[in-house]
Specification:
Layout: H1 4-9, E1 32-37, E2 54-59, H2 63-75, E3 80-85, H3 88-100, E4 108-111, H4 120-129, E5 138-142, H5 147-155, E6 160-163, H6 168-182
Parallel strand pairs: 2-3, 2-4, 4-5, 5-6
Antiparallel strand pairs: 1-3
Length: 190
């Protein structure tokens, strides 16, 4: 079931202000927003959540799209922390800081291509050059369906490429694809 606040976002998703992405803290001057992914009470017949918490980096400048990604993750019972960064330059600085700091790389990166300051392609290039994050799964989530963007993303090592859906139900179904990227291959244990 889609919460009413998400359904109400959809008609005006492209017009929402940046600050409207929902709850979370934003004390970082780099515009790094940290949000806890909440598990809803399971309904009978729903899948169980994955057995552990995850760190997911979302690089997205559109607040409504960021809110929808968050909702898609929660809808598919993915728990953990969602780190949202709204521009490419800040994302590259974040990745560089991970390499020099004690924190590990996110378990999944969801990356828009059309970003202010630095492009998603530049962010992906930085990810692949990172000592800690060079092998992290990266899902491109872009409004672009251009073949040249798909080819460039693949050549830079993107794990998956998804065009942003036009319908709310399809957008929320992306959570299942992101969840599959977080699950270990059959036979592996965490």
């Amino acid at each position: 079931m889609v919460p009413h606040y998400v359904a109400s976002l959809w008609p005006s998703a492209r017009a929402m202000p940046r600050w409207a992405a929902g709850s979370g803290s934003n004390s970082n001057p780099e515009s790094v927003r940290r949000v806890t992914l909440r598990l809803r009470t399971a309904q009978q017949g729903e899948e169980n959540p994955l057995d552990r918490s995850f760190s997911i980096l979302l690089v997205e400048d559109n607040a409504a799209d960021a809110a929808l990604v968050r909702e898609a993750l929660e809808e598919h019972r993915i728990r953990g922390e969602l780190v949202v960064i709204a521009d490419g330059a800040a994302a590259i600085r974040y990745i560089e800081a991970l390499d020099t700091g004690p924190s590990g790389c996110p378990d999944l990166v969801i990356l828009d291509l059309n970003l202010p300051k630095r492009s998603g392609h530049e962010v992906l290039r930085s990810m692949r050059q990172s000592v800690k994050c060079g092998r992290a799964p990266v899902a491109i989530l872009s409004s672009s369906d251009a073949q040249q963007d798909r080819v460039a993303a693949a050549s830079l090592g993107a794990s998956q490429y998804y065009r942003k859906p036009l319908h709310l139900k399809e957008f929320l179904s992306l959570g299942a694809r992101f969840k599959a990227m977080l699950e270990p291959p059959a036979g592996d244990s965490l």
